[in-house]
Amino acid sequence: MKSVAVLVRDGLSLFEFGMTAEVFGIDRTDAGVPRFDYRVCAEDGPRSVVTKHTAQVSVQATHSLAGLLDADIVIVSASLPSRCSDAERRALLQARDNGAILVSLCSGAFLLADSGLLDGLSCTTHWMYADQLQEQYPSVTVVPDALYIDAGSVITAAGTGAAIDTLLHLVRRELGHTIASAIARRMVVSPHREGNQKQYLEVGVPATRDATLGPSLERVLSKLAEPHTVGSMAALACMSPRSFARRFAAELGTTPHQWLTSRRVGAAQELLERSALPLDAIASRVRYRDADRLRLQFVRALGITPARYRHAFRAGAEEPAAGRPAS
Prior knowledge:
Elements: E1 3-7, H1 14-24, E2 37-41, E3 47-50, E4 58-61, H2 66-69, E5 73-76, H3 86-97, E6 101-104, H4 109-114, E7 122-123, H5 130-136, E8 141-142, E9 148-150, E10 154-157, H6 162-175, H7 177-187, H8 213-221, H9 230-236, H10 241-252, H11 256-274, H12 279-285, H13 291-302, H14 306-313
Parallel strand pairs: 1-2, 1-5, 5-6, 6-10, 7-8
Antiparallel strand pairs: 3-4, 9-10
Helix pairs in contact: 1-6, 6-7, 9-10, 11-13, 12-13
C-alpha cells in the first residue's frame, strides 16, 4: 500500500486539499484502484487547521509532521504564499532524504522553494504568484505557462484546477493509465487535459467556450483507426480548416495534430495494459503505419518504450503466446 501524506497549514485552500482526498482518500478498490494510506499532517497535529475561506471552515489534521517522514508521496497543499517553519522544513527535507516523491499544489511551491527543494529546477505555481515566486527564489526557474512540471522526484502544479491534472498524472506515472482512468471516471473528469496556463491568464481569455468542438472530437476519438486531418476534423465541426485550427488552439491550448497524437498514444497505452496484442496490431488500431512509428511517438510522448510500459503497467492481460516476442 502506498502512503500519501498531505502537508496542511493554516490558510489552507479547500479545493486543492479536497483533490488530494478525492484521488487518494477514497476507497475505490471496487474499481480496481489500490487502497492508499492517506494522512493529513500539520505542525503540532493532530489539530484543526483553519482555511483561507470567508466562512469559518476547518480541516482536521490526523497526523503531526512525523506522518510525512516515511511516506511514499508527500503533497504540499495550497495555502497563502509563505515561508516554511523550521519544523516543516526539517520534515520536508527528511522526507526527501527518505525517498519520497514531493508534490506541490498551487502556492505549495513556496514551501518547497523555501526548503531549497526546488533549487536548480524548473517549477510552476498559480500564474498569479509566478512573478512573486521567481523574485523570492531566484535559484529556481518558474515556468508560468505549465499546468504541471514533473522533475522526477519533485512535481509542481499550477493553480487550483491544475491539482486534478497533476494528481492524475502522478497516478498515471506511478500506477499506470488504467488506474488513473478509473479514478478520473469516478471524478467525472478527463484523465488527461491538453494545454497550459496560458488559456487561463486574464488577457485574451474567451468569455465563452465553443460547443461545436466537443461532439466533433468525440467522433474522432471513436474512430482513431481512421485517417484524420485538420480538414476532415474541421468538416465534422462545420468550419473551415483555418477557423477550426484557430478555435482549437484557443479552446485547448494545443494544435489538432498534437491533440490527435496524444489521444492515439493514450489509446495505445490502454491496449498495452489490457491486451496481449502485438505492437503492430496496436499500431494499426491507432492509425500508425507500423510498430516502429508507434514506438517513436510513444517514446516522444512518455519517455519510455511500449515494451517497458507494458511490462510495468500491464493489468490482467493474457500473457503473449509462447515464442512470440514482446512488443
